[in-house]
Design a protein that fits this description.
Rossmann fold; 8 helices
């Protein structure tokens, strides 16, 4: 058995992010002008093969991140679990470039953009390596490893590992009004309040998106991210 990066989705995200950065010339991670409220017409869509949809060679950023991952697949005898979390960490950091938080979320220029990881296996350490020295809209990125009972206050992103799936609904509810993107990796997680949920399909890491959780958190999401999601759940409200 091997766990693989979904190369088509990953390359598409890399190309889209490069276009976002090139478009505003700032070199920042997010370009707010390209962020849109989710379009319900995109909900439930299963995108066509990503390589065919976007075409061409992957951009330099995708190549660099692929090299960082050390390849797109890892077999069980080379620690599949570590490889899976390395891939998820790379995706998670890339998600940030396609989400817009309310302006008041980081009201101080020196406030860190904080990603909390609760029981994420090696994802926390892998994410810390990727985020080291990086900024989001001029804010330094900080990765916080959380323990059970730690507060989610001050987090822009909260990743909840699968062993905490039973508490996911309570954790998501606790972030109401905080503009926190909740990311998970458990079966049925979107129904419990997660906004983005990782899933392994045919040994490839993919992700699903719940628009109602995005909207409830007061966030805006790029249509480019929705285009490479495996499933986009609509907002019933």
């Amino acid at each position: 058995m091997s766990v693989c990066l979904d190369v088509g989705a990953f390359e598409s995200l890399g190309r889209s992010l490069a276009q976002l950065v090139h478009g505003d010339g700032t070199g920042g991670v997010a370009t707010h002008a390209t962020m849109l409220r989710p379009d319900r017409r995109a909900a439930g869509r299963r995108p066509a093969t990503q390589a065919g949809r976007f075409g061409g060679a992957c951009c330099g950023l995708a190549v660099a991140l692929a090299l960082l991952l050390g390849g797109s697949c890892a077999r069980a005898d080379s620690d599949t679990t570590t490889a899976e979390y390395r891939i998820k960490a790379a995706f998670l950091f890339k998600f940030v470039g396609f989400i817009e938080w309310p302006p008041a979320t980081l009201d101080r220029t020196d406030a860190p953009f904080t990603i909390g990881v609760l029981d994420g296996g090696t994802l926390g350490s892998e994410l810390a390596l990727i985020a080291a020295g990086r900024q989001v809209n001029g804010h330094p990125v900080r990765v916080r490893l959380l323990g059970r009972g730690d507060s989610a206050a001050g987090l822009q992103v909260l990743f909840v590992g699968r062993s905490e799936a039973a508490r996911l609904n309570a954790l998501a509810t606790a972030t109401d009004g905080m503009a926190t993107l909740v990311v998970s990796e458990s079966d049925g997680a979107l129904a419990l309040g997660s906004a983005i949920n990782f899933i392994v399909v045919d040994d490839k890491v993919r992700f699903d998106v719940a628009l109602h959780s995005i909207n409830r958190a007061g966030l805006k999401i790029s249509a480019r991210l929705l285009a490479v999601a495996r499933v986009v759940q609509p907002d019933p409200s």
